[in-house]
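Hi P.,

Sorry for the delay on this. The queue was packed all week, but I finally got your sequence through. Input first:
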Amino acid sequence: MSAPPCLVALYTAPAAGAPVVRVPEARALAGRGLEGDRYAAGEGSFSRWPGRGRAVTLISAEALREAEAAFDVSLSAGEHRRNLVVEGLDPALLRGVPFQIGEARFEGVRLCAPCKYLVRVTGQAEAFDALVGRGGLRAEVAAGGTIREGDAVLWDPADRARARRLPG
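Then the structure:
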């Protein structure tokens, strides 16, 4: 039996445009995001627009490696600007699905397409194209708690079968 998917890296940034910082653990705040992150504080680049799915972003380590190899870009050390890097799972499969990492519960809301803002903050023109189809997932924090690098990503397969069909 293979190991469950897990959280391999965790990033926050205190304000829009600020460098992301890798942290070994963070507190997920219900309805807000990760403590110390721009979106939990309502200060992210896209915070001014209404809608769900801005609390936390996930991307797969496998997608990052594919993007770097295919486009000769550097997306390591948080340059992808996603909060959570998971291994062993395509986060898009959790769209409309409740899932758990550590003590916190999340709900996958919509796919996280790349944007041109990423190009501006990284200075890498190919960063946008590298993440097309690999951008990950936007999620809401349903119940708060501490999450740590190494925590398993868990969900009920029945929930995935009943996944709410959400736009995006």
